[in-house]
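FW: tagging you since you asked about this chain on Friday. Here's the raw sequence from the shared folder, copied in full. Didn't touch anything.
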Amino acid sequence: MNVDNPSPPPARRRYSPWAMGAMVSALLALLLQGALVPLNLAVAIMALIGLRQIRREPSRYIGRAFCWLAIALVLILTVLTAMVESTAPQPPAEYMVPDEERRVPDAERLVPEDAPMVPGEGASDR
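HL: got it, structure written out here
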């Protein structure tokens, strides 16, 4: 007896969970302005794992564009964060507090501050 069993329909391709996780994490990194370097690294690693998963089982998974988009977003965030943080303005010197050991107490000064300086004499002659 030969019974014709219909073959099951082919499985529907779905997005790779690693690709979706990488994309969601990349959007989270964007909201945090790329400030968390471990999150940026995690996004890149998840995207690479997603690309590997898609390459190994192309009949089952899709989402290659999500992986590449997550990698590109993290790279752009990393570069922009590095550019912004390296050019952070220094506070003016008048707002900085000098070190205690470098500060000379007023009682130890040999010459008063308001004493006129004679031209031709250096500060070491005082």
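FW: The first strand starts at residue 14 and ends at 15.
HL: agreed, and The mean pLDDT is 81.
FW: great, closing this out.
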